[in-house]
């Protein structure tokens, strides 16, 4: 008695949750051992800090509209002649450095970002409100602090820091690429 679209959506959600396995031409089977998955939302750092009971502060370090460097043009599949907005931002928790944000926004995909005022509000908060995304790629790693990161995060160049790189897309077009580097001792926890 259910609509075909409803059944199809329910089966897709069961497959996404690792409960069933769908294979073309062989059908759908319940997994003997369901896949355990951790899902990551795109957090808003202000909310993250405030939910931990700390006072949040944001600072825009640098903002410029530039042609994308070669690594970024290749990574985001940007055409020749494209412009991006490059932002360096700092986020603080109880007055201490918390996160160093190095963000690039594709102005072809998000033209409103050209004139947006990121002095009072961070680009992540602005993007979450303004632009949906259909795909995200997230990488986690340890990284050695660069001189610039060390100056902002109150550590020594070469110190091991936790880093997240994230690229989001909307309907096949790259929206933004960001590298988030956290203060020493940062820990990320996820639940499923």
Give your account of this protein's structure.
- This protein is of the alpha+beta class and 192 residues long.
- It has helices at 4-16, 45-51, 70-76, 123-130, 147-153; strands at residues 20-23, 27-30, 56-66, 84-93, 96-106, 135-144, 160-170, 173-182.
- The strands form two sheets. The protein has a six-stranded antiparallel sheet with strand order 3-4-5-8-7-6. Strands 1-2 form a two-stranded antiparallel sheet.
- The longest helix has 13 residues, at 4-16.
- The chain starts with a helix and ends in a 10-residue tail after the last strand.
- The mean pLDDT is 90.
Summarize the structure.
With 192 residues, the protein is an alpha+beta fold. It is built from five helices and eight strands, in the order αββαβαββαβαββ.
